[in-house]
Design brief:
The structure is a homodimer. Chain A has about 425 residues and is α/β, with parallel strands linked by helices. Helices cover about 35% and strands about 25% of the residues of chain A. In chain A, the strands form 5 sheets. The first copy, chain A, has an 8-stranded mixed β-sheet with strand order 3-6-2-1-9-11-12-10, sandwiched between helices. In chain A, strands 13-18-20-19 form a 4-stranded antiparallel β-sheet, with helices on both faces. A 4-stranded antiparallel β-sheet of chain A has the order 15-16-14-17, with helices on one face. In chain A, a hairpin with an 8-residue loop joins strand 4 and strand 5. Chain A is globular, with a radius of gyration of 24 Å. Chains A and B meet through helix 1, helix 2, helix 3 and helix 4 of A and helix 1, helix 2, helix 3 and helix 4 of B.
Chain lengths: ~425, ~425
């Protein structure tokens, strides 16, 4: 079970969490819990570090910020004990959660959970602070912001957990953003691949890294609202969303628990910006000259289109980058104007990316044409298209985002019945 | 060097501390620093524990409260780095500071400082969170409130430090409380034994345990104000008080750096209470019947007087206990009224203990008679007397505390010259 910062914000909320954990422990004999710091605490600690040293040493930053989860792990163990449960905290260096030495953004290398498993088997609830680990050099590391989801999945894998329940602010994964489409439906289950596509294009429920790890390690995830009561846990009436393998999804469909849809969900992303380089010489290596420096600067280029221009031997190149990297990308390209040989740079951050996602489209043609026809019927201009096995994305004008999402949600039959 | 919670309260104050540490490091090549949590932080964490679980598990309490020093150790390391120093934090489990398993009040068993010494020799400042350690079971322990002084002395002993400088709210040890006697003088040096007597009877500068440890380990202590500037450190102009062995004190006196006084200081303590048991049968074992149950309950009995009563075969027994234990002591004695066979219990918490302290009195008679005469000349009634090799204490009426301290300070020639 994993609880985020909002659930851990203060001893009263921690008592609520402890009630849920106790209810779960009463059903299954062995429960490990991963906790975040109290909401706001990590920001407070990060600010201290910035005040102490603007160019802070990430190893010492980790010592400071990891303390937030240390506090909540001890407090949850104490609260569980006050409810009559056996419980103890296991700090990152105690488990140990071995990580790489990349302080501030370490990756988990291995979790040796033997000692913890022995205590779990003896009926003691393990409370593990998320976000923190131990480097080879014996120093405290952290996994980067939001890393507690990853900690939870890694601990679940290490103890071979039946399931990893992520309690969060939302009560599951929806077919699309319910703030845009009132008829959005909560999904009973999605596959890891679908979740990765939905997460990376805007459905911010889980850290992308944690979903990738769950897929690799075969950990069954469940996203749940932290406002679910302990009674619901006791009754096994948990209305969240399961995140599972293709194989398990097939079984759910075969067992009649799920209906197979061609499209599982619609995601949107307004955080991309468009760059057009005009009149680039149409010669071998021209595209490499543009994208190699961006890759070197860790700027993620997404959609790419090449339009043959009016003049022969020249072409316009259009692509998208994250808005946050737009200025940096522009500067890098201006520096290389001579080598690349373009005429003008045109940028536009008033664009949006709309994606339809679903494992069902692997075995079904027609999904793309439905998308293009539905949008054009409503006069929405598609500026670019990109596709993967389980996703089709289009670039449109940002103003038309909500309209496009609603149109597609209806077109793919995702609207909830009244 | 050790800095307390007031010195570490916020990043601005930590910057001031870092300046002092840097100045010291520029003089000596190797510096270790022990830090407390930010003022108020330990209270905040203790309250969280109490809210979580009124009867808290001390092992989890330690996990929570030790985080305060973890934060300040990381922040001081970061701040030192921002001033161009090499520095790193060493958490209790990293050094490691091995302690007993008595959570919440653990005693340090051993500090293995080899790894830290290697880094000190390489010119890196070591920042060690005070108050925390590691149990044999691999759990976080704490040393009890005020334990950071003890941590500092233990670290100083482990790295064979030339000196252990305790930066605190006061700027040294005085001949008496300057709030009572304006002419109190700061002492250049006191011996460990004198400091123990002065500390245990009211001069609250250092944790008693840390002085005892320093004496045992031969660590030279210096008490300094944390308001001393880095310039003073650079100039070696540190107007604190040294706490040293008898032998070093003799050398300071021989070298003309100190004048040997018969009396070093006057301490007072208003936290004792008096208990009188009337008409106790004057038979063998009667005293043991009274004091054995108090000792079993860890109630510290200090002064004891037996007055033969009017009736033959009976005696009044008077003694003092800490005010905080008075009610408990009274209840224990009432429970044993039958065995002890006393008539009445009379209690009085309006008393004070005044002590004159000095290694000089070992070789000088006259000190006690000066005390008794000076007090009686001012009409102050002495209710009880107790002595040790380097201390004479009297019990008087609490209202006369300030008068008695002033009279004695003058009588022993301790007043500062104008």
């Amino acid at each position: 079970m994993k609880f985020g910062g909002t659930s851990m914000a203060g001893t009263e909320r921690i008592r609520r969490v402890a009630g849920i954990v106790r209810a779960q422990a009463a059903k299954d004999s062995e429960v490990a819990v991963v906790v975040s710091a109290m909401a706001g605490e990590t920001d407070r600690l990060v600010n201290f570090c910035r005040e102490a040293n603007a160019l802070y040493d990430p190893a010492e930053y980790d010592v400071v910020v990891a303390s937030g989860e240390q506090v909540t792990s001890g407090l949850l163990a104490l609260t569980l004990q006050s409810l009559g449960c056996k419980a103890r905290s296991w700090l990152g260096w105690q488990v140990p959660v071995a990580t790489e030495s990349a302080h501030g953004k370490a990756r988990i290398a291995a979790i040796t959970a033997d000692a913890m498993i022995a205590r779990l088997e003896a009926g003691e609830i393990a409370v593990v602070p998320g976000f923190q680990g131990l480097s080879e050099e014996g120093r405290v590391t952290t996994l980067g912001r939001g890393g507690s989801d990853t900690s939870a999945v890694a601990v679940a894998a290490a103890i071979d957990a039946t399931r990893c329940d992520i309690y969060t602010d939302v009560d599951g994964v929806y077919t699309t953003d319910p703030r845009i489409v009132a008829k959005a439906r909560k999904l009973k289950a999605v596959t890891y691949e679908e979740m990765l596509e939905l997460a990376s294009v805007g459905a911010k429920v889980l850290q992308t890294r944690s979903v990738g790890l769950a897929m690799k390690a075969g950990v069954r995830l469940q996203v749940l609202s932290s406002f679910v009561g302990e009674d619901a846990v006791a009754a096994d009436d948990l209305p969240g969303t399961l995140i599972v393998s293709d194989q398990e999804m097939d079984e759910l469909v075969k067992g009649g628990e799920m209906e197979r849809q061609h499209v599982t969900g619609i995601a949107h992303d307004k955080n991309e910006a468009k760059i057009i380089l005009t009149r680039v010489p149409d010669k071998p290596g021209a595209v490499a000259d543009i994208f190699a420096p961006l890759a070197d600067a860790s700027i993620n280029v997404d959609m790419i289109i090449q339009n043959v221009g009016r003049d022969k031997g020249e072409t316009d190149v259009t692509f998208t980058v994250p808005q946050a990297d737009l200025a940096r990308a522009q500067a890098l390209l201006e520096d290389r104007r001579g080598e690349i040989g373009f005429n003008r740079i045109i940028t536009d951050s008033q664009i949006a990316k709309i994606s339809v996602v679903g494992v069902g489209m692997k075995s079904h043609a027609g999904v793309a044409s439905t998308m293009f026809r539905s949008l054009s019927d409503r006069g929405i201009n598609i500026q670019a298209i990109s596709t993967s096995e389980i996703k089709i994305s289009v670039m449109i004008d940002e103003d038309e985002t909500e309209l496009a999402v609603r149109v597609l949600h209806t077109a793919y039959g995702l609207d909830a019945e009244d």
